[in-house]
Amino acid sequence: MIRRGLFSLVPLLVLLVAFEGIVRLVWEPPPRPKELDLEMVPHPSRLWALNRNATAYAVNDQQLRAVPDTGAAYRAFTLGDSSIFGHGLDDAETLHIQLGQALAARGTPTDVFCGGVPGYSTEQSMVVLDEVGWGLDPDLLMIGNLWSDNNFDNFVDAEWMAELSLPSRKVDYALLRFQSWQLLRRARHPDLPTGGLPVGWIRDPTEPEHGRRRVPLTDYAANLDNMLADAADRGVGVVLLMPCNRERLRMDGRGIAAWDIYFETMRQVGERRAVPVVDACDALRPTELRGDAAFLDSMHPTGATNAVYAEALTDALVASGWPERPVPDATPARLTK
User: Fold this and answer.
1) Using CB atoms within 10 A as the burial measure, which of 126, 133, 136, 257 is most buried?
2) Which long-range contacts (CB under 8 A, 24 or more apart) does 287-293 make?
3) What's the predicted TM-score (pTM) here?
4) Which helix (H) or strand (E) holds 268?
C-alpha cells in the first residue's frame, strides 16, 4: 500500500512542478508593496520586524539591530520598543552600546545585543526572547517594555498573534515561496498582501481607537513575571528599566497619568522577583538634561540621555552583586493571564 501511495504521488508531483514552471514563465508577481521600503516589515510570529534592507542601521539575519559580537566575557540582551532600540540614533549613541561600555568600565566586559524593536510590547518581546534571545546564552536581560503595552490602540497584540498562529496561516506563509501558490492566492483573494507576507502592515493609525490597551494590565504583569521566571530557571540576571519621556520627567511624580498603573506594575513585578528596577526619570532628574537635550521628540532619548541610563543601570547591577546576581527569585508561583 505504501508503494502504491508513493507511485500515485509521483504524477501529482510532476504536475505541480510543471505548473510551477509554467507560472514562472508566463506570470510575474506584482511589485512589492510600498511598506517593504519602510523601516519595518510584517513578520509571521512577531507581527512586524526590522526590514533587512534598512539603510539607517545594520540589521542582522534575525531582523534585529545588528551588534558586533566581540567575544566578551559576558553577554546581555535588551528588550523593549523604539526607546530601547535607539530610534533616530547612530549605533554609538544607543543604549545597548553605551551599557556595554559602562559595564566594561566597571570590570565586566559585556557584549550587549539589541532585542528592542520600535513598537514592540511584551507579547512580541517574549517571542524575540524565545526565537533569538535565549540562543545567545545571555548572562543578563535588560527589559524596558512599557510604552507599547500601555498604549491604547485599535488592536490587541495577543489577539492578532493568535490569528497568525493558526495552522492555515502557517501553511499559507510556507507555500508563498512558490509563484504558483501566489497566483492562486491572488486569484482567490486579490486584496491580500503580496511579497510573501501573511498579514498586512500595522493597522491604519487613522482608524478610530477602540479604547483597548495593546496588552491588558494583567497580561502585562504576567508577561513580565514569566520572562523573569524563565530567566531564573536559566540562571540569567535581570534588570528592569522604567522608561522616561518629556511629560513624565516634567510631571516629576505630580498628577495622574494613564500609564501610572503600568509603571507600578513593573515595580511590583521587579520586587516580587527581587531584581533591580531603575526609573529612567529618576536617573535624569539630577542631571541638566532637559528638553531637546534629553529627548529627540516627545519620548525618544538622545545619546546623552542613554549614557545616563547606562550608568544608572550599571550602578544598580553592581549594587545588586553583578555579575553573580541579580538572578530573579524563582520561589513565587508564575503569574497567569
Assistant:
1) 133
2) 290/249, 291/246
3) 0.82
4) helix 260-273
Q: What pairing do the DSSP bridges indicate for beta strands 140-143 and 237-242? A: parallel
Residues 209, 211: Cα–Cα separation, whole Å: 5
Output the tens digit of pLDDT for each of the chain's 337 residues.
666 666 667 777 777 777 778 878 877 776 655 444 457 888 889 989 999 887 789 999 999 999 999 999 999 999 999 999 999 999 999 999 999 999 999 999 999 999 999 999 999 999 999 999 999 999 999 999 999 999 988 788 998 888 777 777 667 767 777 877 777 777 776 655 444 443 333 444 444 445 789 999 999 999 999 999 999 999 999 999 999 999 999 987 677 889 999 999 999 999 999 999 999 999 999 999 999 999 999 999 999 999 999 999 999 999 999 999 899 999 999 999 8
In the block, cell 544607543 appears at 94
| Helix, strand, coil share of the chain (percent; to 5) | 45, 10, 40
Cell (9 digits) for 32: 512589492
Grid coordinates of 258? 494613564
